[in-house]
Amino acid sequence: MLQRRPGNRVDRWENGRYLRVFETPAGRVLVAVQNLGSVSAPALRCAFPAGATGAERREVVPAVRRALGLDLDPAPLEQARCSHPALAAATAGLRGMRPPRFGGLFEAFAGVVPFQQVSIDAGIAIVGRLVERFGTCLTHDGGRYYAFPTAERVADARLDRLRACGLSARKAETLRALARLVAAGEVSEAGLEALPSTEAIAVLCELPGIGPWSAALVLLRGLGRLDVFPPGDVGARRALRALLDLAADADVEAVMERFGALRGYVYFCGLGSALLRRGLIEPSA
């Protein structure tokens, strides 16, 4: 679910393991996570390369838990998935899924802005180039693994270098402006966490280049606000009409209200089902 496409430079899925380089106050560290249990009784093991310090290991574990949604109670999620017969049938292969999260607030912005009014594949390609040009890289067993670029690195970037990644002039300016706000602490995850979702969306919509759709995705995929559903998301509407067997003219946002505080989880069900249909992820055993 985190990788979405094989070309993802940051979230890697190799030989049944999730691999990622995390930036921590103690340094960069590569983590490999493997499930040694089952969907019903997961037992995750974090493996670190030789030489990883105790401080690095302690710092990275909370980041791994965040990325994989491990602190979410799976019971309400499963109840929501099974509450609609069509949804339960269409998402059987997603049993056990917990909504993942971006690594931080700037990563959330950078995981949303490039996708504005372009296809998912085009957005992923742009983000991949951003990662290669502005992220740091580690080598391990002959492979290259990238950390997501920091806000500070992008804040100092020239606009022409950002545009060379495939961003339009406006998006390049937006992303650099957001990076500068995050780097300066003028907008922070802690500040948004303290607000109800409606107020947090209002705050985000005051930032450059951020509208209701982008704000909702930042909250949903960056802060884990499952009570949020991105308004006007064409792809999500299409996927959910198929999942819930809705008429072509059905008001998807109104239907989402039935799921209350877990409407965002249903968004992930739509995303996951699309990935399953394309063979980009494997169904739960």
Verbal overview:
The chain is an alpha+beta fold. 46% of the residues lie in helices and 11% in strands. The chain has 14 helices and 6 strands. It has helices at residues 54-68, 74-82, 85-90, 105-110, 120-134, 151-155, 159-163, 169-183, 189-193, 197-204, 212-222, 234-244, 252-256, 263-277; strands at residues 12-14, 17-24, 27-35, 44-47, 137-140, 143-146. The strands form 2 sheets. It has a 4-stranded antiparallel sheet. A two-stranded antiparallel ribbon has the order 5-6. A hairpin with a 2-residue loop joins strand 1 and strand 2. The protein is globular. The protein starts with 11 loop residues before the first strand and ends in an 8-residue tail after the last helix.
- N-to-C terminal Cα separation, in Å? 15 Å
Spatial arrangement of strands, main beta sheet: 1-2-3-4
The profile of the biggest β sheet is: 4 strands, antiparallel
Helices, by number, come to: 14
Q: Name the helix and strand elements from N-terminus to C-terminus, one letter apiece.
A: EEEEHHHHHEEHHHHHHHHH
* Oligomer class: single chain
Residue windows where pLDDT falls under 50 for at least 5 positions: none
**Total DSSP E strands:** 6
Specify the structural class. alpha+beta
Q: What share of the residues lie within helices?
A: 40-55%
Overall, the morphology is globular
Strand percent estimate = 5-15%
Q: How large is the radius of gyration? A: 19 Å
Question: On the 0-100 scale, what is the average pLDDT?
Answer: 92
